[in-house]
């Protein structure tokens, strides 16, 4: 009957549309709405529960335009938080508690320069929580990650791919089925992380993206560490076709990166030292 057909269609379309239909409207003109949304206290996030039973939330911190990602095993309730932000720790914990999840690991994609990580404060608030960061980051954490390491949550896991270039310690976290990758600041949607401080190197970044991210399956969903225009998700196929920087040959890419002329992140002088020790609250 019609109801059954409609529910089957919805189920079929769900992974394609990715967001709950009501949230799809928020995708349009999101840049113009971001300030308004944050003022009204509404959370801008994307929802997914795929057939493998990974529960997923994309959370946004509007001051630094940082994405935090929550992934959990829907059965065991074990959860991982990628790139938590100090200012939104209570929001994240509220959601984690509402969903009945057990937060096991707070994993950073790198030592951030623009905001303070929430890992240290989370460790104070969640008994047994472990922090994780690349061993090449210069920072301290409970779990020091190397290429190929995995972070498990229930029957699921994230695999570490080292993607240096924005910083030496940048990593991309890839789900076990390679359907999602969390690229931090190595690859942004139609952009990439800057390479003008913290060991930044445009040649290294180009190699990382081409060899470690663009080699993932074309349908792999790419979730960046930031977005300044309201974009939420991309795919390997899309970025290999439309990324205005990384589709260029290496020499042109290097020229683009040398001429970005971006102002220094406002919080760099407090964020970097704090993030070397897991945020203001220490490991
Ligand atoms: N205005 C922001 C900093 C914006 C910025 O520099 N973003 C970084 C990632 S955070 S270090 C970046 O790599 N941007 C690339 C780009 O093309 O925009 C602030 O003051 O915090």
Name the features.
single chain; 283 residues; alpha/beta; Metallo-beta-lactamase, Chain A; seven-stranded mixed β-sheet; six-stranded mixed β-sheet; 9 helices; 15 strands; binds the ligand N[C@@H](CCC(=O)N[C@@H](CSS)C(=O)NCC(=O)O)C(=O)O; metal ion binding; transit peptide; Metallo-B-lactamas; Mito_Persulfide_Diox
Query: Could you state the order of secondary-structure elements as H and E?
Result: HHHEEEEHEHEEEEEEEEHEEHHH
Average of pLDDT: 87
How large is the radius of gyration? Answer: 18 Å
How many domains? The number is 1
**CATH topology value:** Metallo-beta-lactamase, Chain A
CATH architecture: 4-Layer Sandwich
CATH class group: Alpha Beta
Helix share bin = 25-40%
Tell me the layout of helices and strands.
Layout: H1 2-17, H2 21-27, H3 30-40, E1 46-49, E2 54-61, E3 66-73, E4 78-82, H4 89-98, E5 102-107, H5 119-125, E6 130-134, E7 143-145, E8 150-153, E9 156-162, E10 171-175, E11 180-184, E12 187-188, E13 191-192, H6 202-213, E14 221-224, E15 234-235, H7 236-242, H8 250-258, H9 268-275
Parallel strand pairs: 4-5, 5-6, 6-7, 11-14
Antiparallel strand pairs: 1-2, 2-3, 3-4, 8-9, 9-10, 10-11, 12-13, 14-15
This protein binds the ligand N[C@@H](CCC(=O)N[C@@H](CSS)C(=O)NCC(=O)O)C(=O)O.
The ligand N[C@@H](CCC(=O)N[C@@H](CSS)C(=O)NCC(=O)O)C(=O)O binds next to loops.
Enzyme class: oxidoreductase
Subunit structure: Homodimer. Monomer. Interacts with TST. May interact with RELA.
Pfam families: Lactamase_B
């Amino acid at each position: 009957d019609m109801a059954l057909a409609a529910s089957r269609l919805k189920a079929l379309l769900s992974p394609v549309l990715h967001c709950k239909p009501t949230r799809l409207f928020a995708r349009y003109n999101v840049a113009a709405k971001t300030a308004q949304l944050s003022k009204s206290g509404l959370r801008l996030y994307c929802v997914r529960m795929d057939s493998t039973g990974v529960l997923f939330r994309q959370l946004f911190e509007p001051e630094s335009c940082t994405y935090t990602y929550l992934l959990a095993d829907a059965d065991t309730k074990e959860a991982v938080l990628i790139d938590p932000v100090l200012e939104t720790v209570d929001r994240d914990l509220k959601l984690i508690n509402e969903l009945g999840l057990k937060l096991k690991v707070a994993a950073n994609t790198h030592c951030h320069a623009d905001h303070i990580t929430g890992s240290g404060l989370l460790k104070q608030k969640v008994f047994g929580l472990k922090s994780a960061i690349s061993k090449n980051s210069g920072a301290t954490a409970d779990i020091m990650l190397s290429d190929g390491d995995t972070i498990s949550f229930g029957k699921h896991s994230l695999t570490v791919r080292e993607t240096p270039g924005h910083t030496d310690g940048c990593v991309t976290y890839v789900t076990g089925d390679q359907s999602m990758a969390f690229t931090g600041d190595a690859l942004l949607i139609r952009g990439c992380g800057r390479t003008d401080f913290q060991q930044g190197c445009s040649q290294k970044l180009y190699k990382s993206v081409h060899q470690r991210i663009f080699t993932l399956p074309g349908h792999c969903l790419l979730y960046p560490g930031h977005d300044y225009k309201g974009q939420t998700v991309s795919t390997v196929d899309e970025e290999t076709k439309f990324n205005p920087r990384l589709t260029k040959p290496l020499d042109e890419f290097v020229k683009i990166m040398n001429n970005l002329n971006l102002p220094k992140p406002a919080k760099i002088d407090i964020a970097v030292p704090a993030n070397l020790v897991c945020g203001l609250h220490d490991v």
